[in-house]
Inverse folding.
């Protein structure tokens, strides 16, 4: 799992996204386009929910829900959140999608308990949620060492990192550099001793200098993609650095 990298690890950290680009990120689209462009906002919100469904499933499981009830609650929550005409409430939200999603899930579960007494009903499969895979992943969560909220935040951070790595892998594969990515991805951890450059050069059939350049570019692109993914979950570009620091703290706890 790739960790967060501090800007001090390179002499030229990437600049924050320019404002016109930032306005196209998903959570900002939801907050800004909720009334004027419902279709666009719904699409952006659905993409966010599809990426970050597992932290909510893990939250429900840690709250004591059975696997079946956790799946039911997660699907029910997304069904309600993504229902046409429901964006008016989302539009009033402020801050980060991470905080909004957890607060909304808590409210949803309380509402379900009060009005339906946890009665199950058939749920539309709003989100492509692999329940078997989710439960397999949950088996490896720390037992009784984190609150539901702490588990949600940790899984959020790890999901973010997985998303970043998937994007990077796809970029390198699309450009015909899958072998280079597989060999050089160790550099994202900052552990240069994991695979000496000379050995990598021999394996890839390139020079040691070419390996160093490739590693530098990979690390730089990793930081860029990380910031882009974080930007998708905050309301304003000024929040990117704070969210990055918050997620570092979550992972180091």
């Amino acid at each position: 799992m790739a960790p967060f990298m501090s800007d001090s690890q390179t002499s030229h950290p990437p600049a924050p996204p320019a404002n016109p680009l930032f306005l196209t990120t998903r959570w900002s689209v939801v907050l800004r386009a909720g009334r004027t462009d419902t279709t666009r906002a719904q699409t952006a919100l659905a993409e966010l929910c599809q990426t970050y469904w597992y932290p909510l499933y893990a939250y429900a499981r840690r709250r004591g829900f059975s696997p079946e009830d956790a799946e039911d609650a997660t699907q029910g929550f997304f069904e309600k959140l993504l229902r046409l005409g429901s964006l008016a409430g989302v539009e009033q939200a402020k801050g980060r999608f991470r905080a909004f999603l957890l607060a909304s899930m808590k409210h949803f579960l309380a509402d379900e308990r009060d009005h339906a007494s946890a009665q199950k009903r058939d749920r539309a499969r709003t989100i492509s949620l692999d329940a078997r895979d989710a439960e397999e992943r949950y088996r490896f969560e720390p037992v009784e060492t984190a609150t539901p909220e702490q588990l949600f935040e940790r899984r959020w951070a790890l999901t973010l990192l997985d998303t970043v790595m998937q994007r990077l892998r796809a970029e390198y594969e699309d450009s015909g550099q899958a072998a280079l990515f597989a060999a050089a991805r160790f550099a994202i951890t900052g552990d240069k001793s994991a695979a000496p450059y000379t050995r990598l050069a021999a394996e890839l059939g390139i020079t040691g200098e070419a390996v160093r350049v490739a590693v530098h570019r990979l690390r730089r692109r990793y930081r860029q993609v990380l910031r882009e993914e974080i930007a998708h979950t905050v309301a304003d570009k000024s929040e990117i650095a704070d969210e990055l620091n918050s997620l570092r703290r979550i992972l180091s706890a």
Remarks:
- The longest helix spans residues 148-174.
- The chain has one domain: 17-252.
- Residues 7-23 have pLDDT under 50 and may be disordered.
- The CA atoms of residues 169 and 182 lie 8 Å apart.
